[in-house]
């Protein structure tokens, strides 16, 4: 593994420069916005999506310190946990957005069944199932992520930079079942939603426009944030497992892979827009409390929002 990353005279370490200067800046921005913004959600599925985002955002200051100093000082166990947080957010977000798409599909295309699926118990069961499935599908990587010692410096390797013979097939499994299949479900759901909205006599209602915007936003997240990362992760592992790849080509692929990682984390930004499109009123109570208005007014706004949504899952 170390031999694959040896420098040569004509092999510019562009990936090292990107790790040192690009990742700390991007992770700092995502961390601040993600921590502040994801406190502003209250519906069941959105709350669980926010928890996944917060878990990731709270882990980023540690990575900012690591990439800024190029030395990992927190031990192997913490390294595995921090890397695990990224994947928990990644695949948890994918599944929560897929679940949201399915519920929207039922509400729009099969409105007679919407009253049943809008009961809280279905949202709670769906969220529990998503958490369990996410933890099960990414738990094997806890045994694959390691630290590396080199010239008195310790590196916390990201998942795709570990032993390529170990992570290659598992990476493909994650890509197919953790991303491609949910993407197909989302595309199928919103194709039928678009067809239903297009034939609706009330197609110009604001609520219909909001559903369209929500559909477009989720598709943008899947394509813009998640697709580049999954492609570059496979290419990164492949470049490490094939002996004929030149040093410059390997570093170029690694550089593109590093660029894609914060882009995948930008789904936390798009999720903030999802909270607004979902009609979340928690922001009013939050800012009322921050500006030290009467406390009972904050709770009145919060609970009135929950009462109106007591039978609505998203």
From TrEMBL:
The chain crosses the membrane at residues 20-40, 47-69, 81-103, 123-147, 167-190, 211-232. It comes from Cyprinus carpio carpio. Signal peptide: none annotated. Residues 21-275 form the G-protein coupled receptors family 1 profile domain. GO terms for molecular function: G protein-coupled receptor activity. It comes from the Eukaryota. Keywords: Cell membrane, G-protein coupled receptor, Membrane, Receptor, Transducer, Transmembrane, Transmembrane helix. It holds the Pfam family 7tm_1. This is Oxoglutarate receptor 1. One of its GO terms (cellular component) is plasma membrane. It is a multi-pass membrane protein. It is found in: Cell membrane.
């Amino acid at each position: 593994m170390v031999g694959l990353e040896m420098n040569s005279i004509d092999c510019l370490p562009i990936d090292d420069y990107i790790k040192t200067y690009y990742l700390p800046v991007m992770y700092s921005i995502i961390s601040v916005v993600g921590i502040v913004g994801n406190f502003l959600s209250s519906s069941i599925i959105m709350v669980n999506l926010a928890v996944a985002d917060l878990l990731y955002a709270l882990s980023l200051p540690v990575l900012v310190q690591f990439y800024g100093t190029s030395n990992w000082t927190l031990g192997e166990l913490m390294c595995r946990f921090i890397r695990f947080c990224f994947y928990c957010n990644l695949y948890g977000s994918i599944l929560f957005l897929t679940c949201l798409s399915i519920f929207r599909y039922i509400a729009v295309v099969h409105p007679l069944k919407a009253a049943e699926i809008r009961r809280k118990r279905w949202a709670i069961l769906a969220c529990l199932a998503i958490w369990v499935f996410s933890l099960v599908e990414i738990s094997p990587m806890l045994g694959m992520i390691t630290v590396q010692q080199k010239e008195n410096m310790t590196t916390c390797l990201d998942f795709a930079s570990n032993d390529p013979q170990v992570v290659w097939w598992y990476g493909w499994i994650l890509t197919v079942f953790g991303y491609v299949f949910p993407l197909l479900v989302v595309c199928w759901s919103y194709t039928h939603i678009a067809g239903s909205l297009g034939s609706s006599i009330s197609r110009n209602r604001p609520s219909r426009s909001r559903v369209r915007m929500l559909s477009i936003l989720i598709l943008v997240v899947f394509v813009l944030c998640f697709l580049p990362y999954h492609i570059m992760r496979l290419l990164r592992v492949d470049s490490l497992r094939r002996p004929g790849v030149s040093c410059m080509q390997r570093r170029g692929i690694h550089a593109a892979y590093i660029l894609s990682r914060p882009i995948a984390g930008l789904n936390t930004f798009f999720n903030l827009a999802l909270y607004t499109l979902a009609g979340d009123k928690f922001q009013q109570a939050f800012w009322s409390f921050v500006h030290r208005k009467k406390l009972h007014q904050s709770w009145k706004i919060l609970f009135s929002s929950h009462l109106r949504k007591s039978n609505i899952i998203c």
